[in-house]
Amino acid sequence: MNLVLIGFMAAGKTSVGKRLARRLGYRFLDTDEVIETETGCAISEIFAHQGEPYFRELETRLLRNLGQLQNHVLATGGGIITTPGNMELLKAIGTVVFLNAEPEDILKRLRRDTRRPKVQGGDLEEKVHGLLGQRMTLYQEADVVVSTAGRSVNQTAGEVLRRVIAFRHDAAQARNA
Ligand code: S3P
C-alpha cells in the first residue's frame, strides 16, 4: 500500500509527506529528488538545458518504474499531472491525495523561492494564478482532496489519514456491493 501526494508547488507535499511516512512507518520518496539523483542535475538545470518536455518525460519514465513500490509515501512535482496518462499511473501506485493549499499561502512561500523554474522572473502572482487555473481540474481528479488551509503539517497529515481510510473503506464496499 502506498500514498501519493499531488498538489501545487509549495503546497506542503514534502513536509506533510514526511510526517505521514513517519506516522505510518512508511518510507518517503520524492519524484523531484529521485530525478535529481538519477540525472546528477538540479531540476532547474534540466529545465534550462534540456527543456520542460524532457523533464516531463523523466517524470513519466519514473512513474512507470514505480509499479512495485510498497509502503511508501510518494510526493510528486507540482506539474506531474499535466502529462496525459500520469494520473492513471499515479493511481496504480497508490491512493492519490491532492493537497489543496490556498493561493495566498502558496504565494507567501514562493516569494522567497529561487530554485523552481516555473515561477522565476516576471509577475509571480500572475504565474501562480495562471498555472493554478490550468491545473485545478487535473488535481481534482485525485482520489481524495484535502485542504491545508488553517491546518498545521501535523493536522493536515491527520486529515489525510482519516480521508484515505474513508476512501478505501468506501472503495471496498463498492467492490463488494
Ligand atoms: C514543478 C514543480 C516542482 C518541480 C518542477 C516543476 C511544476 O516540484 O517538479 O520545478 O511544474 O509545478 P514541487 O511541486 O515539489 O515544487
Task: Give a structural overview.
This protein has a 5-stranded parallel sheet with strand order 2-3-1-4-5. The radius of gyration is 16 Å and the shape is globular. The longest helix is centred in the last third of the chain and has 24 residues, at 153-176. The mean pLDDT is 97. The chain starts with a strand and ends with a helix. It is 55% helix and 12% strand. The chain is α/β, with parallel strands linked by helices and 177 residues long. Shikimate-3-phosphate (S3P) binds at residues 9, 32, 43, 77-79, 116-118.
Output the keywords.
177 residues, alpha/beta, 55% helix, 12% strand, globular, binds shikimate-3-phosphate
**Total beta-strand segments:** 5
Q: Name the structural class.
A: alpha/beta
Task: State the shape.
Answer: globular
Provide the helix percentage: 40-55%
What's the SSE pattern?
EHEHHHEHEHHEH
Tell me briefly what this model is.
The protein has helices spanning 13-24, 31-39, 43-49, 52-64, 86-93, 103-110, 124-139, 153-176, and strands at residues 3-6, 27-30, 72-75, 95-100, 144-147. The chain is of the alpha/beta class and 177 residues long. The chain has a 5-stranded parallel β-sheet.
